[in-house]
Write a structure and sequence with these properties.
The chain is mostly beta strands and 163 residues long. The chain contains one helix and ten strands, in the order H-E-E-E-E-E-E-E-E-E-E.
């Protein structure tokens, strides 16, 4: 009986593992780069965040559901140009404006502070990994694409609007 239960557990575990396809950043050529870049705005309230660039070819034949990266989730993406070779997903960290917080040893006196939003991820991701949830066009089954070893480009500072 124990062997039968172990066989069922191993079968279920192997099926679950097959639903995640791993893609490495080195698999793509120039023009279809896979990387992320942090950015910060210079004007008060302009915010900061991370932009993830990925080849749109990995989404061909798939219905995009969501992408998880750096503790955040997005359900939308755009293209960088009309040729649609590269998709871009923007994650904002909020504004860079200082919000008043009431910090006190007595928790009751901290009433009114804004509670931070926490995104629950389906798997634990490293700092240079992203997870894309997709549905196939023929099957309605949710699958995942794991983007591994995503290189980081230097931070982009945007001190003001372009003139």
């Amino acid at each position: 009986m124990k062997k039968f239960a172990l066989a069922i557990i191993l079968t279920i575990a192997s099926c679950a593992a097959q639903k995640i396809k791993t893609i490495n950043a080195a698999d793509y050529t120039t023009g279809e780069d896979l990387y992320f870049q942090n950015w910060v705005g210079g004007a008060p309230g302009s915010g900061s965040g991370t932009t993830l660039y990925l080849p749109s070819s990995m989404l061909v034949g798939e219905e995009f559901v969501a992408i998880y990266f750096a503790g955040s989730m997005s359900k939308t993406y755009n293209y960088t140009a009309d040729d649609r070779r590269q998709a871009v997903v923007r994650f904002t960290n909020g504004s860079n404006e200082h919000r008043d917080k009431n910090m006190n040893m007595d928790a009751k006196k901290e009433y009114g502070n804004q509670v931070p939003e926490i995104t629950k991820l389906p798997v634990k991701l490293e700092a240079n990994q992203a997870l894309i949830a997709v549905k196939g066009t023929k099957k309605d089954e949710l699958r995942y694409i794991l983007l591994d070893n995503i290189p980081e480009k230097s931070m982009q500072a945007m001190p003001s609007m372009p003139q």
